[in-house]
Amino acid sequence: MAGSGRRQRVAVAGASGLIGSHVVELATAAGHEVVPLSRNHGVDLTRPQGLSDRLSGVDAIIDVTRPATMDEGAATDFFTTVAVNLGRAARQAGVPRTVVLSIVGIEQGQDFPWYRVTLAHERAVREHAPGVRVLRATQFHEFPGQVLQRSGDGDTARIMDMPTQPVASAEVAAVLLEMATADEGGDRQIAGPSPEQLVDLVTRWCELRGDDVQVLPVPATPQVGAGSALPGPDVERRGPDWWTWAQASGRP
């Protein structure tokens, strides 16, 4: 789905994060005016003051916010608060549409806390924001490195044994921008081209970087271990496979 072709004013909530920074770069290169919304840009989305003024004249909001914590309760509170504040401010400012990032297979993975958190975010945005369009994506190519960073303990890392089909974060950002700047459209789903095992990806990432880390598989939750994170046959596939991306990105 292509954008409308006209220059638009796009607000990016979470502009300094992994996906948000890609969106800002792509939108700027395409000639759009970007309104960044993040703490790094002096905006605290958990506080409503001044948000509607910042959204004046905005054509679309792209919500790729992420909390600083993985704790389920605190993360859910963050997402709900941000969704309410952004949604109310958007309506006050007359913003016609909101695009929010979510996860492929989210309803089927509700035995995993982060999927419960993200579904709560998606539902809160649908309830409070104007003109909602949801992009559900599989895990990003950066996911194995992120998991390793969180799970490493000296020279060992305990990694959840789960299937995944990671997608390039730049592709996710491109689709978000397409959805935000298109006059018409609905929800979409995207995935990378190839199914993988997370344990294998973390092991290969360590080898590629020369990290002397023993990767130890641990059981995933039943739904995630059974493949709830994998895309269905009708989900759009985009971008390079994980190994192609890793060879270009992973060497020190």
TrEMBL record:
<dbReference type="Pfam" id="PF01370">
    <property type="entry name" value="Epimerase"/>
</dbReference>
<protein>
    <submittedName>
        <fullName>NAD(P)H-binding protein</fullName>
    </submittedName>
</protein>
<feature type="domain" description="NAD-dependent epimerase/dehydratase">
    <location>
        <begin position="10"/>
        <end position="102"/>
    </location>
</feature>
<dbReference type="InterPro" id="IPR036291">
    <property type="entry name" value="NAD(P)-bd_dom_sf"/>
</dbReference>
<dbReference type="InterPro" id="IPR001509">
    <property type="entry name" value="Epimerase_deHydtase"/>
</dbReference>
